[in-house]
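User: Hi! I'm working on a homework problem where we have to compare a predicted structure to a textbook description. Could you give me the structure for the chain below?
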Amino acid sequence: MRLTDKKIIALVEHDFEDLELWYPILRLQEEGAIVHLVGKEAKSKYIGKYGVPAESDFSFNEISSADYDAILVPGGWAPDKLRRYPEVIKFVQEMDAAQKPIGQICHAGWVLISADILKGKQVTSTPGIKDDMANAGATWHDEPVVVDGHIVSSRRPPDLPPYVKAFADLLAEK
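Assistant: Happy to help. Predicted structure tokens:
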């Protein structure tokens, strides 16, 4: 399996978009990756927009981005909450500085905006935050997946297959 021993942070907070959290986790695990759900509190249950629960493995304060190969930010309304945590911003900025894969889908772009890492980047997202992405200095594209260096972005659940494939391909190269 091409992602054996690769460790990935999957950020979690209430009101995540259920498919945008679980589909990448399951696909990456199928390829051998170790995916840890990381939230404000360890061993806490977070509920998605459609009622699917996710239990965090660790809290933000229990991990170091240096111990991980990549990070995933789900969409839904969770990104609006996640971007308010200094630890989340720090993780994203550290992953960016280390050129480690950062996956973001739908509204997850809000977290990257708050981390101030989008200047000059090519991205996509849900069309609802297109202006936010552009105002952060990115060039927005209406495509299922956009890869710019180590940042992999996608629009919405129907785009999950090409998004996760692009993310896995990038991670396998590292």
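For your comparison, note the following. The longest helix spans residues 160-173. The chain has six helices and eleven strands. Good luck with the assignment!
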